[in-house]
What we know:
Layout: H1 2-16, E1 23-30, E2 37-43, E3 46-53, E4 60-65, E5 72-78, E6 83-89, E7 94-100, H2 104-107, H3 114-138, H4 145-174, H5 178-185, H6 198-210, H7 229-240, H8 245-258, H9 264-278, H10 286-301, H11 308-322, E8 334-337, H12 341-349, H13 355-364, H14 366-369, E9 373-375, E10 383-389, H15 394-408, E11 416-422, H16 428-437, E12 444-447, H17 455-458, E13 466-470, E14 476-479, H18 483-503
Parallel strand pairs: 1-7, 10-11, 11-12
Antiparallel strand pairs: 1-4, 2-3, 2-5, 5-6, 8-9, 8-12, 10-13, 13-14
Amino acid sequence: MRKLTLLFATLLLAGTSLRAQGYDIRINLKGCKDTMVFLVKYTFDQQYISDTAKNVKNGQIVFKGKKDLDKGVYTVVSQEKTVYFDFFINECQNMTMSSEVGDVMGQIKAPNCKENEQFFSYIRYITGKNQDFNKTREKTKGMSKEDSTKFMNEKIKQLNDEVKKYEVDFMAKVKGSYLYDVLNLKTEKEWGKVPKNKADTIEQYYYYKNHFFDGIDFKDDRIARTPFFDDRVKKYFESVILMHPDTVIAEIDKVMAKTGDCNLIYKLLLGHFTYKYEQSKIMGFDKVFVHLCDRYITSGGACGVYDAETIKKIKDRADIMRNLLLDAKVKELYVIDTADGRKVRKMGFDTATTSKSITDLYYKNINALTPMFKTLYGVNAKYTVLVFWAVDCGHCQTEIPKLKEELDKLKGKIDFKVVAVQTKDDLYDNWRKFIVEKKLTDFLHYYDPIHLNNLKENFDIYSTPVIYILDKDKRIKAKRLSAEQVAEMLKTLETIEKEQKKQQ
C-alpha cells in the first residue's frame, strides 16, 4: 500500500509541472505604426492567419489563445501584408520578443525561447554576410571590368567558404532539434567531389537524387508547416527526377511510403499530387492521376482529404482517363459522312430533341441507316489523325485550316488520314460551308446525328479542338496536340520506328 501511495504522489507532482494549454506571444516592435498585426502559419504551399492582434499601440503586439498553436514556423505580417519576421512555435508557446522596424532581423531577440534565439542568431549572421557582399560590390566602382571580376570572384569565394563553415558548425550545434530539421529542408546535399568525367557527373547526379530527402522525417507534421518543405517536394518532382509518368509514379509511391498513416503530410501530399497531375498539360501524365486514384483514393486511402461525393467525381474522371492513356486502343466510332447528312436530316434527326424520339427514329430507319455508317476502325492508314471540332468554335476556325496546311507538307511522305468529327450536329449547314470555303475536302468528315457515341466521355471532349494521333491498330500514340504539333509528332513517330528497326 505504501508503494502505491508513493507512486500516486509522484504522479501528482509530475502533473503539476505540466505546462497549461494555450499560447501567449508578446512582441515589442519599436517604430511599428500598425494598429493590427497578423500571425500567419505556413502549411505546405499555403499560408493561413492563425490569430490577429487588434488595437496595437506603440508596437506592443499580443497574440493570445486558450489552445496551443500547431507547432511549426510562423510569420508576423503587417496590416499592409508585409512580412516582419519568421519565428518558431514549438515547445515555446509563451514567449516575448523585441526588435525595431528598419532593422528587424538585426535587432530581434527572444530571451525566453532558446530555439528562436538560436534561429535569430543564424538569420543575423546570414543577413550580415549579405550586407558584406553588397559592400564588396560597391568597392568595385572605378575598377576595370577585368579587375572587378577578379576582385568579386575572390570575395564571393571567401564569403561562401565562411558561410559554408558557419552553417556546418551551426547545424552540428543544433542537431536533433526542430530548428535543425527546418534548416535541413533548405540544405542541398553535395557530392563532395569535383566531377572530372562523364561517369563522375552521373555519379554526382545519383548522389544528389538519392540523398535529396536525407534527414527529413515525413512522419513529423511540423516539417509541413515551414516555408521550405513544399519547395523541396516540388523541386524533386519538377527538376530532379526523370520526367516520365512511370518514374513519377514510382517516386510518388516512395515518398508516400515515408509518411505516417493519414498524417498531415500524407494528406497534403495526396491533395497536391492529385491536383497537379489531374491538371497536368504534359502528354501522358494523366497516367499518374489514374494511379493516384486507384492506389490511394478509391482504395480507402483518401483519409478525409476528399468526401464521398468528391471521391466519386475523382473516380469518374479517372475512369474516363484510363481508357485514353497512351497506347490504349480507342473505342469504335459509328458516324455519318457529311455526304449522307441530308438524307439523315430528312429522317427527322435534325429536329428530334429527346433520347426517346431519337431512339424511335433510329429503329424506324435502321435499314436505311446501316449502310451509311462509317467506322473509325474502318479507316486504313498507318496513322489516323482523329480531330474533334465544332464549326462555331473560334479556336477551331483557326486550328483546323492550320492543321491542313501543316499536314499538306507530309503528303506522300507519311501514310496518314485525317478523321474530322464535328461535335455539333445542329450546325450541319455551317459545317459543310466551312469545309468548302477552307478546302478541307481531303479530310474524312463525320458527325453523330443519331448520338450513338458518347463523345464527351469516350474521348474526353470538354473543349474543342481535341486531336489524337492513332497508329494502324487505333492505339493512342499522341493526344491533345496543337495543329502545329501534329506534323512534328508524325515525323517523330516515324523516326522512332526507324531507330527501333535498326536495333532489331
